[in-house]
Amino acid sequence: MVTGSPLPWWMSAVVYQIYPRSFADANGDGIGDLAGIRAHLDDLAWLGVDAIWISPFYPSPMVDFGYDVSDYCNVDPLFGTLEEFDALVAEAHALDLRIIIDWVPNHTSDRHPWFLDALTDRSNDHRNWYVWRDPRSDGLPPNNWVAAFDMSAPAWTFDEASGQWYLHLFDSAQPDLNWDEPGVVDAMHDVLRFWLDRGVDGIRADVVHCIGKDPQLPDNPSELAAIPHSALNDVPVTHQRIRDIRNLLDSYPGDRVIVGEVYLLSTEAVATYYGDGDELHLSFNFPPLYAPWSEPHWRRCIDSTVHALAPRDAWPTWVLSNHDNPRHRSRYDAAALFRGEDPASVVRRSELRARCAAVMLLTLRGTPFLFQGEEMGLLDAVIPPDRVVDPGGRDGCRAPLPWDGTDHHGWIAPEGIEPWLPFPDESSTCNYASQRDDPDSVLHLYRRLIACRRRHPALSLGDFVLFDAPDGVLAYRRTVDDEVCAALINFTDTTVAIDHHFGIEASLGRAPATVAISSDGSGEGSPFDGRLLPDQAVVLTT
Ligand code: GLC
């Protein structure tokens, strides 16, 4: 790692994802809002994160809870106003928190004025802003693509009035934009300028790998036919479009960042979206998010990330949870029950494993993205069938954040108004207020880890090398200039002795190393005694 030249802020940043419906509700309608975010900016600054990414807050019919946008340049009244957004940016900046917003370039809502226009007749100016095809001679949809959410349904809906099908890789209420149409490109670039001019520091680009499509719209190969939005986008024009977007961002001062959601489960494929340093600054890489809690599996994920990104000098990202997937602690919990682990110990062990995962997330080489609530080790909520609202079955991880242990967990609740989703089961004991008071809590572990990254630049910007350790232990070293740190993660349920022959001291340069962080809080500040407890991770410094 070259030091000396100023590096962009997002390389060493910790980013915190806010799902605004579920973060905090300031007006008592049961749905989180921008005022709720403003009220908790101090808490985020206390945690120590550098940036917040806010999922969509734009006007929307909410079929996909904001990822179906009907006006890209405004705020949905549910969430507040544009003036409140400006105030949020100013207040966040005053606390040194950067703002990343979500941009949904692949599709609009079917209520967006462009699509309503397109529906009026085939000659309308906006018709070609979407992807239309005539029926096949047998009357079937134009190709075999399936829609996300309901994979038994085609990615096409027939418009009786015009006799054509329109494409939607997601819900039928989310028609795909046609990026071959210059008007679409100009309009979506204008949307970016609108928000960059308001001072946002970055963009999270939703399913950005889908904005280019093979013009022939060929059938997917049969082995991929049941997988939504696969195999249809790796066309050169997608990369050209991303380069143009990157140029637009780079024309603004202040290292505005674009992080893309490239939902391809191959890290090699994801790596191509960094281009030659001229496409995405960052891309999400999802295999680690789906990785089970197993040392060989994580070793493979880390290896393949290093090997895919290093030749391009591309900067990795790490993510354990987000608004589209069960939280990692819930995943580890479910997997342990499935393996037949004792249910009485599973809840405790899944918390210990989630603590270890946090140590990795915040010490691997790359930019970590936290999902709101994971800093409390939250589990998903159990959603009764009559409260299910998401077409994609993702309600559990989107449950409202419990801010305290009272009945309404810090959500103002006028008589008869329930939050839009139930709280996670453990909310009376696992909530922000109780964890803030408890120095042994997961919340305090995240805070200590983030502070440790700040104190030791090796942990954010340093070189990364895996080194040998006993089976079931992952060990790596981070080095910048003459600073050396190491992380040891014990994936097993037994105490492991780390003998001298594993070379930890040698690898750190001098003995004994100090435990800067331990996932259970034990021994911090003391010399490392060469023992890792079951399900324990430590960060060592010299
Ligand atoms: C992305 C979002 C997801 C949304 C989908 C369609 O995958 O993360 O929440 O449903 O795009 O916009």
Using only C-alpha atoms, the radius of gyration works out to: 24 Å
Distance between the termini: 19 Å
Mean pLDDT figure: 94
Main sheet characteristics: 8 strands, parallel
Overall geometry:
globular
Unreliable stretches (pLDDT < 50, length at least 5) are none
The chain-level structural class is: alpha/beta
Strand order of the largest sheet: 9-8-7-3-2-1-11-10
**Number of helices, counting only DSSP H or I runs of 4 residues or more:** 17
Percent helix, as a range, is 25-40%
Strand percentage, roughly? 5-15%
According to DSSP, the number of beta strands is 18
Q: Which ligands occur here? A: alpha-D-glucopyranose
Which short descriptors sum up this protein?
17 helices, 14% strand, alpha/beta, single chain, globular, eight-stranded parallel β-sheet, 542 residues, binds alpha-D-glucopyranose
SSE arrangement:
Layout: H1 9-12, E1 15-18, H2 20-23, H3 34-39, H4 41-47, E2 51-54, H5 82-94, E3 98-103, H6 113-120, E4 132-133, E5 156-159, E6 164-167, H7 182-197, E7 202-205, H8 236-250, E8 257-260, H9 267-271, E9 282-283, H10 287-290, H11 295-309, E10 317-319, H12 328-338, H13 343-361, E11 367-371, H14 432-436, H15 442-455, H16 457-461, E12 463-466, E13 473-480, E14 483-490, E15 496-497, H17 504-508, E16 514-518, E17 531-532, E18 537-541
Parallel strand pairs: 1-2, 1-11, 2-3, 3-7, 7-8, 8-9, 10-11
Antiparallel strand pairs: 4-6, 5-6, 12-13, 13-14, 14-18, 15-17, 16-18
This protein binds alpha-D-glucopyranose.
